[in-house]
Amino acid sequence: MRHILVVVPALLLAGCGIPTAVNMAMYAFEGATVAMSGRSTTDHVISAAMKKDCVVFRIVLDKPVRRDNEPKDATVVVVADPGS
Predict the structure, then answer these.
(1) Which one, of 21, 58, 63, lies nearest residue 42 by Cα?
(2) Closest CA to 38 of 53, 24, 50
(3) CA spacing 20 to 30 A to 28: which of 1, 38, 40, 65?
């Protein structure tokens, strides 16, 4: 009984207890995030916390993980109020 109390929480924390459908949905979401932005959800969290452009995969490319946010072309959207 003691072994079960140790093993079951460890498996759940490791992600082994998560149903396959949930894992597949998480992988699909992560893949869509990377496809759309070029950054994983972890990269987005780190970038928001550091207020920098951070991509962990840059380590593999032998580049710095963090760099200053570069100014991008601004797109202005004007919405007219139909009531006026």
Answers:
(1) 58
(2) 53
(3) 65
**Residue spans per domain, the chain:** 1-37, 38-68
pLDDT, one tens digit per residue, over 13-46 is: 666 667 778 878 888 999 998 898 888 888 888 8
Cα–Cα distance for residue pair 69/49, rounded to 1 Å: 13
Asked if 57 and 47 count as a contact pair (C-beta separation under 8 A), the reply is no
Nearest one of 84, 80, 55, 81 to 67, comparing CA atoms: 55
Spacing of C-alpha 12 from chain mean position: 21
**Distance of alpha carbon 14 from alpha carbon 9, whole angstroms:** 9
List 67's β-bridge partners, or say none. Answer: 53
- This prediction has a pTM of 0.53
CA pair distance 84, 36, nearest whole angstrom: 36
Beta bridge partners of 80: none
